[in-house]
Structure formats: C-alpha cells, structure tokens
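User: Teach me something about this protein's shape.
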Amino acid sequence: MDKRPVITLLTDYGMRDSYVGSIKGVICSINPNANIIDITHDIKGQDIIEAAFVLYTAYKYFPVRTIHVVIVDPTVGSNRRILLVVSDEYYFIAPDNGVLSLIYETGTVSTVYEVNAEHYYLSEVSPTFHGRDIIAPVAAWLSKGIESDKFGDPITDYFKLTLPKPRLMPPKALRGVAFHIDRFGNIISNISSEDIKKAKEEYKSEKFKIIIGKFEINSLKNTYCEGNKGELIALIGSSGFLEVASYQGDASFIANACRGTEITLIFQ
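Assistant: First, the predicted structure itself:
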C-alpha cells in the first residue's frame, strides 16, 4: 500500500447524524495515514441501484489500489454477507446486495471474498451499524497492507442485480430507460455512446430522433447551454451515457420522468 492509501466512502447516511464521522474515526484510529475521500453521502435512503450507478461513474477516477467503501445496506444485521472485491486496479468493500453489480460487469474483477475474519472487526459489533463495526475496520486494515485473502473466503455466488439493458427494436429503434436522475434533473439513460455507435452500424444510419414520453428531440448537443431555456435537449454526458437535459431547467420535471421511463432512439 502507498504511504497515504486512499479510502473512498459512498453511503446513504447523509451528513446530519454521526454515522459518517464515526466511520472516519474508526478508519483513522487504525490507520491515521489513510486519505479518506467522500464520493457522496447523499444516495437516496436504501437505494441500491442509485448507489451502484454513482459508484460506477466515479470509481475509475481514483488512484490505482484505492479502496472503495460502499454502504447502502437495507438488510444490515441479517444474514446477508459483506464482500471484499478485488479487481485489476481497485478494491471494493460492500454488502452483498447487488450494489457492486456494475463493477462486476466491467470484467475486471479477479476475486470476491466473503468477509468473515472477525478479529479484524471492532470488539463490539452492533447489528444495526456494520458500516462502522465491520466494513470500516476491514477497509482500514486492508489499507495498512493486510493481504485481501486474510479477510475471508473466496466465493462465486455473490448477488448481482438484473439491470435493464438497451435493446435493438424492429424496425429501426434502440430502446433504453432512464437509469438515474441527477440533482439538476438531468435524465441519465442506460444507453451508452457505444450502444449508439453499434445501433448506427446495425441500421446503417447516422440520423435518429429521441423519444421520451410525448417529447421528441431531433439531434444531439455537445453542451447543456446549447439548448434554449426550458427546452429538452439530448447529449452524451460525462459518464458516457445519453442524457436528456434542459438548460437552466429540470428535465425530469418537464418530461415527467423517473427511473425506468422509456427512452427510444428511432433511426431514419
């Protein structure tokens, strides 16, 4: 591990209570040199899919060997497992509830361990706060150089969410869904720029229109400010996915859209 190993935190705890501070305190007590970075603590309460997406859009921008801690854990205290996931460049520690599903899809995961080495936990474990009493100390000890295989046993039956995928639809359409609504009201779809490229090749066409609800968008923009105020526009966002947005407006409100709303590209 580096002299100042990076540990990120992504949770639904918010900042009102002591939860985040307690986790940081545990990590610093074990490894004072840890560099703890908050990705976000504003995940909607118990929203595993939102957490999975936000993690996916952020994890690769951190240094190699970063330890990503994800705590969105609706079934804390039950018999659900805690996982330590080792990929080619990163570590992930999270409950086994599908929150790492998009990480599994990258094809970079080498080993998944069920964390069960209790001597790395805090001496007292609350059944309602595994984030503090199990996940945080495991992350801290890992950051101090303890080998990943010391924390538990390798498994292959970890839980993966069945997430919607874009589909080619006859005669000449590509259909996806809204996957995430960000704080600006931008509607981020599950349609990647690569999905659009493949559809163009399949349909031998560069031209398409985008349908969301009763709205039709006829071209892609490069930036949000290329649209008129209150107008729906489409673009490829910074995460690499098709977005429907509105310059100085809330696209999700205008389009009455939420996660799961269909977004269709119709090729000409």
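Now, about its shape. The mean pLDDT is 97. The chain has six helices and 16 strands. If you'd like, I can walk through any region in more detail.
User: That's plenty for now, thanks!
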